[in-house]
């Protein structure tokens, strides 16, 4: 991670933990918003007006948080307005790196070698982890946001003068329910799988696994229609990014192996329904997902990447 703008070697992929051995995810620190007229958003400062080609999104395709911004970008028709740079899926001892892995890019703006170079460009005294996704402003050469939840919401509304506003991923009449279900899914499932994988005590692991499967069971019961609510929303994006990684990565490397998503009929059908929405399939790269998770040395010292699972490979082939 960066400390006062300097990369420190004691980088730990397991991030922080509490006194019970529970994994703790860092909170994001660039929280500005792109808005239609450049006025400030709910947090941070103003000056980030929606303009075609001005902003660039940095992602890793292994990362569910980055992937949710990619899905929002596709569904909102922002592909031609916001270019994307894909980092290598394998974390190095200097964090995310650019270029060299098939399907990954070099940095077109500065020729940076690592993601942390962009963080120190934006803030020479930055302290924290150099995470993806990150939304970069090429006009003022700074980072707009490194918080995917905010990025999804700004993509939903900020560019309304340039592209059609539909679908509305955060409709006003559902906001309270969306916020509540987001919190539920984030704590126990999106981040719950990481809590299981990075737990450093048996008790913390079992607590996390219980949360993961309680939530999956509840969602299986809930999914009587096509989506979590009566229409597609950002909560579906949040659930999808974890489901699509589950059988291929979390079930093995994070030991969330009581069941697979394939064992849940409704969740499986739902996952495929979302996968088939126009543009979503382009955001899923199984090779990056498997290579990325199975390269986490603390969990898999040999770095061997499993060959399967065949059902996920087949599904992704059939949706190409
Ligand atoms: N709050 C962030 C979390 C992003 C995050 O944790 N990204 C992970 C990859 S999935 C990362 O970049 N980790 C690298 C690190 O922690 O050094 C968001 O949702 O945008």
Total number of helices = 10
CATH superfamily of the largest domain: Glutaredoxin
* Residue fraction in strands: 5-15%
> Main beta sheet, described?
4 strands, mixed
Overall morphology: globular
Number of folding domains? 2
Helix content: 25-40%
N-to-C order of helices and strands: EEEEEHEHEEHHHHHHHH
Determine and state the CATH class of the largest domain: Alpha Beta
CATH topology of the largest domain: Glutaredoxin
CATH architecture of the largest domain: 3-Layer(aba) Sandwich
Extended strand count? 8
Averaged pLDDT: 95
Stretches where pLDDT is under 50 for at least 5 consecutive residues are: none
Calculate Rg over CA atoms: 19 Å
User: N- to C-terminal separation?
Assistant: 37 Å
Ions and ligands:
glutathione
The structural class is: alpha+beta
Strand order of the largest sheet: 6-5-7-8
């Amino acid at each position: 991670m960066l400390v006062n703008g300097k990369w420190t070697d004691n980088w730990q992929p397991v991030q922080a933990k509490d006194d019970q051995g529970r994994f703790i995810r860092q909170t994001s620190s660039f929280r500005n918003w792109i808005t239609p007229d450049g006025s400030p958003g709910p947090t941070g400062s103003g000056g980030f007006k929606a303009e075609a080609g001005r902003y660039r999104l940095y992602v890793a395709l292994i990362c569910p948080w980055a992937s949710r911004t990619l899905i929002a970008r596709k569904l909102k028709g922002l592909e031609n307005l916001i270019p994307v740079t894909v980092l290598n899926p394998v974390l190095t001892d200097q964090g995310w790196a650019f270029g060299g892995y098939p399907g990954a890019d070099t940095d077109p703006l500065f020729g940076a070698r690592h993601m942390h170079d962009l963080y120190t460009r934006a803030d020479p005294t930055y302290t924290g982890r150099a995470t993806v996704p990150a939304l970069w402003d090429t006009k003022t050469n700074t980072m707009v946001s490194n918080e995917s939840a905010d990025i999804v919401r700004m993509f939903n509304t900020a560019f309304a003068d340039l592209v059609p506003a539909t679908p509305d991923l955060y409709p006003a009449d559902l906001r309270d329910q969306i916020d509540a279900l987001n919190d539920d899914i984030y704590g126990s499932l999106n981040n719950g799988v990481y809590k299981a994988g990075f737990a450093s005590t048996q008790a913390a692991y079992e607590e996390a696994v219980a949360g993961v499967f309680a939530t999956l069971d509840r969602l299986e019961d809930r999914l009587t229609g096509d989506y979590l609510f009566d229409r597609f929303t950002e909560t579906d994006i949040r659930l999808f990014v974890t489901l699509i990684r589950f059988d291929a990565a979390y079930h093995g490397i994070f030991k969330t192996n009581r069941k697979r998503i394939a064992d849940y009929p409704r969740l499986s059908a739902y996952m495929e329904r979302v996968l088939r929405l126009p543009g979503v399939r382009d955001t899923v790269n199984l090779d990056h997902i498997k290579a990325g998770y199975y390269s986490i040395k603390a969990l898999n010292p040999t770095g061997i990447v499993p060959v399967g699972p065949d059902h996920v490979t087949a599904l992704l082939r059939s949706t190409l």
